[in-house]
Amino acid sequence: MNAANPDPLRPHSSVIHDGPSRAGARSMLRPVGFTEADFKKPIVGIASLWSMVTPCNMHIDKLAVNAEAGANAAGGKAIIFGTITVSDGISMGTPGMRYSLVSREVIADSIETVAGGEGFDAVVAIGGCDKNMPGCLMALARLNRPGVFVYGGTILPGIHPDSRKECDIVSVYEAIGQHAAGKIDDAGLAKIEACSVPGAGSCGGMYTANTMASAIEALGMSLPNSSAQIAISDEKKEDCRRAGAAAVALLKAGITPRDIMTRKAFENAITVSIALGGSTNAVLHLLAMAHACGVRLSIDDFTKIGKRVPVLADLRPSGKYGMVHLTRIGGLPPLMKVLLDHGLLHGDCLTVTGKTVAENLRHVKPYPTDQDVVHPFNNPIKPDSHLRILYGNLAPQGAVAKISGKEGLTFSGRAIVFEGEEAALHAILKGRVKAGHVVVIRNEGPVGGPGMREMLSPTSAIMGKGLGKDVALITDGRFSGGSHGFVVGHITPEAACGGPIGVIQQGDPIIIDAVRNELTLDISPKELKARLKAWRPRKPKETRGVLAKYAKLVTSASEGAVTDKYL
C-alpha cells in the first residue's frame, strides 16, 4: 500500500507506516509498543484529557486504558495521547477564567493536530470538564474520521456533615454570598468548602459538563447512556471499552462524524438540552460544533425548537436533584424515548452504534413510576424552553437568557454598571447591590475579556445574599451552568465591539421580558444614537500570546465564538 492506494481500513495510517520508505516511522513506533503485526492494523487515537488540574479529569487516564483495550480487542491498534484542560471551578472569578473558553479551541486544535500528524484512522476522545466536550467534537468534525466521544462521568454529591444534605461546587459559591451576608460564619463556610467536592468526576448538577455530555449523546456521538454514568463506576469503564470497539466498527462501516452530526441531529441535541433544563453554554457550544460540521445553525433555532419542547427534568441549579439521581433511575435514554414518542426527536438520525436513534431506543424501559426527577410529559416543570434568545435595542444581534420561571418572566430595574466581573462581585458582597438593581457587567465578551468569562461568582453571590428574585444581571460575558436567577448573557454586539451594552449609564432603566423575548434599554432612540456615536473603543487588554490571538480571530457569541470563520 502507498499514498496513491491506501488500505481502505487504514486510509491514513497506511500512508505513514507502509513500504520501505516508511521504515523510519516504523522504527520510531516500535519503542512505544508496536509489533510487526500492529503495523497492519487500523490505528485508533485515544485522546485523553487527563490531568490533575481538576477532579473532573483526574481519573481519565484510567478510562483511556479501558478505551485502548476495547479498540485493541476489536482488531485495532490504539495510541493514547493527551491534551489540556482548564478548570472553570478553580479559575472562576479570576483573570485565569479568561482562558477557559479559549481552551475549547486549543483542545480542538491539538486533537486535530495529533490525529492528522500521526495518521490515525479513527479517534476516541474522553473528556470531563466543560470545554473538553465541544472541543473534542469540533476536532472530530474537522478530521471527519470515524470517532466516538466518551464523557468522563459525573461526580458523586458531597454530604454536609451537619445537615446531611447533598452539596456540590455551586453550594460553595453560593455559601460565599451567604458568608458575606452574615448567614454563615467562617467555620460554616469551611465546612461547605471541605465536603462539597468528594472525588473524581464533573460538577454534579445539570451544569455545562452534564448538559454537553447529554447533548452529545442526543447528537449521536456517544454510546447510549454515556452521559449519565458516575465517573468512578464500572459502567463508565465498560462505556470506554465499548467506545474503543465502536470506533473500529465505525471504521469498517465507513461511518464518519459528519454522517452523524447532521442538521436534524443538532435539533435533537437542542431538544434534549431544553428538556433537561440545561446550561446556556449549550447555545454557544452547539453553534461552534455545527460550524465545524458545516451545518447551518443559528441562535434563532433555539427559539423555534424551544416553543414546543418542555422542561421535564428537575435538576440543579434551578431544580432539586443532581445528575447522580438521573443516573440512578435510568439515565438519559428513557427521557429521549419520551421525546421521541411525542414527535420531538428525529428518530432516523444515525449514531455511533451504527443504528438510528429510534433503533437505539426501541427497547428502553420507562423511568420508575415512583420517581420525580423527570416529570411526566403532561406535567412539565415549564411548558416551553428556559433558554430564551432575546433581542432589542440592548441586544441587536441577540442575547441568551436562562429563565426557569421560578424567578418570574419579566424584570424591570435600574442599571448598576461595572467594567468587569471583579468590581461587580466586590459590590455585591459589600452590599452595594440592592433590590431593583440590574447588575451590568461589560467588557467580558470574547473580544473584550478577552475570553468571555463565566459569571458564576456574581450570580452565586446574588443568590447567597437572598436577592435572587429581586436583582437581575446582564453581561456580554457568559454564565456557568451552575448560574441561576434572572440572568442574561452573550449580549451581542459586545461592549468591546461597540455594542449598546457599552453605553449603559448608572441608573438607566432596563427591561427584561422573557415572554416577548426582548432586552430593552428604556431610553429614547435619539439618546441611544448619540451615546453610540460618542463611544470610543478601549485599547486591547492583551497584545501578545494566546489571549491576543483569540481576541483577534474570535467571532461573536451569537456565532459560537469560533476562531476559524474568517480564515
N/C terminus separation? 35 Å
Tell me the number of helical segments per DSSP (H or I, 4 or more residues long).
21
Given as residue ranges, the uncertain stretches (5+ residues, pLDDT < 50) are none
Label the overall shape. globular
Measured as a percent range, the helix fraction is: 25-40%
Number of strands: 14
Radius of gyration, in Å, reads 24 Å
Mean pLDDT: 96
Strand order of the largest sheet: 7-8-12-11-10-9-13-14
Proportion of residues in β-strands: 5-15%
Helix/sheet category: alpha/beta
How many distinct folded domains? 3
How many strands, what sense, and barrel or not for the largest sheet? Answer: 8 strands, mixed
Any key phrases for this structure?
567 residues; alpha/beta; Glucose Oxidase, domain 1; 3 domains; 21 helices
Description:
By secondary structure, the protein is an alpha/beta fold. It folds into three domains: 41-156 and 199-361, no CATH class; 166-195, no CATH class; 388-559, IlvD/EDD C-terminal domain-like (Glucose Oxidase, domain 1, 3-Layer(bba) Sandwich), CATH 3.50.30. It contains 21 helices and 14 strands. The strands form three sheets. It has an eight-stranded mixed sheet with strand order 7-8-12-11-10-9-13-14. A four-stranded parallel sheet has the order 2-1-3-4, sandwiched between helices. Strands 5-6 form a two-stranded antiparallel sheet. The protein is globular. The mean pLDDT is 96.
